[in-house]
Amino acid sequence: MEKNQSREKRRRGSSLAAAEDASPEHCPHALGNASSPSLMLTDWYQLSMLYANWRVGKHNQHAVFEGFFRKAPFQGEFAVMAGVKQVVEFISNMRFSEENVEFFRTQFPHASEEFFNYLRSVDCSDLCIHAIPEGTIVFPKVPLIRIEGPLAICQLVETPVLNILNFAILVATNAARHRLAAGWDKELLEFGARRAQGPDGALSASRYSYLGGFDGTSNTLAAYLFDIPLRGTMAHSFVTSFSSFDQLKPELVVPPAAPTDAALQPEKGVVNGPRSAPVLRGKDIIERV
């Protein structure tokens, strides 16, 4: 297992074998963060199956789970692999907190203390992940990710892993299709935060639109977390707050460090939207088709 791959190698290289620093001491308690869900984000039947496997002594049986899709999205022929890094982050940090265990006591009132001790021990230390690198063109019925380890733990992570991958692949693929349609001489910007499926959906959409070929985002949090170029125009409310062009003095409203192609240019007035973003990841993706 290669445990010290750089971020760039993870994007371009061969299959991912395991999370960095995936030993138990590097798997802290986590209830999720801006880029990784909580282990509690799972279907209840995953936990009831875990309990059944534990009761019959099959919970540590070695298992291999594979993830694939049967049809490409948007009636297309391909998809773009995405979400691998987020899956690794999630699995590296997955633990049940003491508060989680106390909640499970209310759901498993007849379970023994040994079962709750087992839940406290759940972590990533016995899991091994193999995955196609992010940004790779992938096709139906081909395994995209393989998770090996104890049966109960592999089953437990199924829901959050699919939750991460399904949306990430969908957004990255849609972005790549837009890039193919627009060509490389056009700048594609993602302004979808206000209509996204909640805060987490907005963050993921910005992250994977950029991976799929878009040039920037209006989502400030996504730019901060994932180093995506920030872009934007202006709101209708801003325009209507001025009653005449005489009130609009670009040298006062444009930040001193604004890009030269900002929407308000001191030397040109209200003219252009941003045009300066470089073509980044998406081109490398599409050229592999």
From TrEMBL:
* Gene Ontology molecular function, alphabetical: glycosyltransferase activity; nicotinate phosphoribosyltransferase activity
What EC number(s) does this enzyme carry?
A: 6.3.4.21
Q: Does the keyword Endoplasmic reticulum apply?
A: no
Q: Which reaction does it catalyse?
A: 5-phospho-alpha-D-ribose 1-diphosphate + nicotinate + ATP + H2O = nicotinate beta-D-ribonucleotide + ADP + phosphate + diphosphate
Class of this enzyme: ligase
Give start and end of each Nicotinate phosphoribosyltransferase N-terminal domain. Answer: 40-166
State the residue spans of region: Disordered: 1-29
Q: Which UniProt keywords apply?
A: Glycosyltransferase, Ligase, Phosphoprotein, Pyridine nucleotide biosynthesis, Transferase
Top-level division of the source organism's lineage: Eukaryota
Answer yes or no on keyword Ligase: yes
PANTHER family named in the record: NICOTINATE PHOSPHORIBOSYLTRANSFERASE
* Family named by the database record: Belongs to the NAPRTase family.
- Name of this protein: nicotinate phosphoribosyltransferase
